[in-house]
C-alpha cells in the first residue's frame, strides 16, 4: 500500500511572455514562456480569445510556433497546461510586420521593446523597465491596449523634441483627443532616481506643470536636453530609440510646422501618424 500524504496540483501554469522572432521567409516564430509548480506539458496559440479545454487539439508540446507574417499587427492568444490538465489564463501579444532591422535591434537588448510604425517610417524603442519600472509599465499598458494607433505627433520642435501619443489630429483640442481607456496619472520617476538622462534619442513622458500628472503623451529627444532632467521638477526618461533614430525620427523632426495657436512654432502642417505600436518582447 502506498502511504501519503499526496500532493495535489491545483495551480495552473503562468505565462510570462510571448517572444516574437525576426521575420524570415515570410514567417515569424512565436515562443511562449511559462512556469508551473510541476511542469508545463502543452502550449496553445490562437488568433481568437476563446479559451481552450485541456483536451483541445491546439495544445502541442512545443513552446514555439511559426506563423505567416501578418500584413498588419495581429493579436495572438496563448495558453499553457500542465501534466494534470490545469490550463493557464490567456496571455496576449500582438505580432506583425515589424521589419527585420527592427526585430534584430530588439534582439540585441535585454529589455522590453516596442515596434512603432508611423506614416514616415518605423522605429523600435527599448524600455528601461528596471530603472524606470512605473513609467515603462504605464507605457506598455497603452501600447497593448492599442491606444497609440492613429494618434499623431502633434508637437514637433526640430532642435528639441517630437511629442505624440495623445491626439488624432491638430490643432490640439478636446475634439482631436484620442478616445480610449485612460489610466491614472503616474508618479514622476525623476532622472535623479533612475540614473537616466534626457539625451538625444531617449524616450520621456510629457506632463502638465503638476509633477505626478503623466499619462500617455510621450516625447523623443532629438538633441541632448539635459536641462529637462531638473527643469520644473524634471521629465521622466524611460527608454531609447534603438532602431529608426537616424531615419524615422529625423523624418518626423523635419516636417514643416506652423504656429500652434499658443505662440509656439510646433504644429505640423501634416502631422506624422502612428499607424500602430506593439510590444515585441
Summarize the structure.
This protein has helices at residues 100-107, 133-144, 191-194, 245-253, and strands at 14-20, 27-35, 40-46, 64-68, 74-82, 91-95, 113-118, 121-127, 151-157, 161-164, 202-205, 218-221, 237-243, 257-259, 265-268, 273-279. It has 281 residues and is mainly β.
3D shape? elongated
Structural classification: mainly beta
CATH first level of the largest domain: which class? Answer: Mainly Beta
Computed CA radius of gyration, to the nearest angstrom: 21 Å
CATH H level of the largest domain: which superfamily? Cyclophilin-like
What is the architecture of the largest domain at the second tier of CATH? Beta Barrel
The figure for the number of domains is 2
Classify the fold: give the CATH topology of the largest domain.
Answer: Cyclophilin
Give the integer mean of the pLDDT values.
91
Low-confidence stretches: none
Helix content: 10-25%
N-to-C CA distance: 50 Å
Helical run tally: 4
Described by strand count, sense and barrel closure, the largest sheet is:
8 strands, antiparallel, barrel
**Main β-sheet, spatial strand arrangement:** 7-8-13-11-12-10-9-16
Run of helices and strands: EEEEEEHEEHEEHEEEHEEE
β-strand amount: 25-35%
Q: What is the β-strand count?
A: 16
Amino acid at each position: 500500500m502506498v502511504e501519503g500524504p499526496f500532493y495535489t496540483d491545483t495551480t495552473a501554469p503562468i505565462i510570462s511572455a510571448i517572444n516574437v522572432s525576426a521575420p524570415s521567409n515570410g514567417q515569424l516564430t512565436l515562443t511562449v514562456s511559462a512556469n508551473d509548480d510541476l511542469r508545463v506539458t502543452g502550449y496553445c496559440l490562437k488568433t481568437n480569445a476563446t479559451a481552450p479545454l485541456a483536451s483541445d487539439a491546439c495544445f502541442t508540446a512545443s513552446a514555439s510556433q511559426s506563423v505567416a507574417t501578418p500584413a498588419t499587427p495581429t493579436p495572438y492568444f496563448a495558453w499553457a497546461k500542465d501534466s494534470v490538465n490545469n490550463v493557464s489564463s490567456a496571455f496576449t501579444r500582438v505580432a506583425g510586420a515589424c521589419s527585420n532591422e527592427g526585430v534584430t535591434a530588439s534582439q540585441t537588448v535585454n529589455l522590453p521593446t516596442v515596434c512603432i510604425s508611423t506614416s514616415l517610417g518605423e522605429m523600435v524603442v527599448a524600455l528601461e523597465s528596471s530603472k524606470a519600472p512605473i513609467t515603462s509599465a504605464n507605457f506598455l499598458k497603452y501600447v497593448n491596449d492599442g491606444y497609440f494607433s492613429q494618434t499623431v505627433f502633434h508637437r514637433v520642435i526640430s532642435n528639441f523634441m517630437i511629442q505624440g501619443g495623445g491626439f488624432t489630429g491638430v490643432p490640439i483640442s478636446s475634439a482631436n483627443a484620442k478616445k480610449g481607456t485612460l489610466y491614472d496619472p503616474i508618479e514622476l520617476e525623476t532622472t535623479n532616481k533612475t540614473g537616466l538622462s534626457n539625451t538625444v534619442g531617449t524616450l520621456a513622458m510629457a506632463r502638465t506643470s503638476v509633477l505626478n500628472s503623466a499619462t500617455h503623451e510621450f516625447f523623443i529627444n532629438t538633441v541632448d536636453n539635459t536641462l529637462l532632467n531638473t527643469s520644473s521638477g524634471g521629465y521622466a526618461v524611460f527608454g531609447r530609440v534603438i532602431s529608426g533614430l537616424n531615419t524615422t525620427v529625423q523624418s518626423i523632426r523635419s516636417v514643416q510646422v506652423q504656429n500652434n495657436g499658443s505662440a509656439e512654432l510646433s504644429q505640423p502642417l501634416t502631422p506624422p501618424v502612428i499607424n500602430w505600436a506593439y510590444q515585441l518582447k
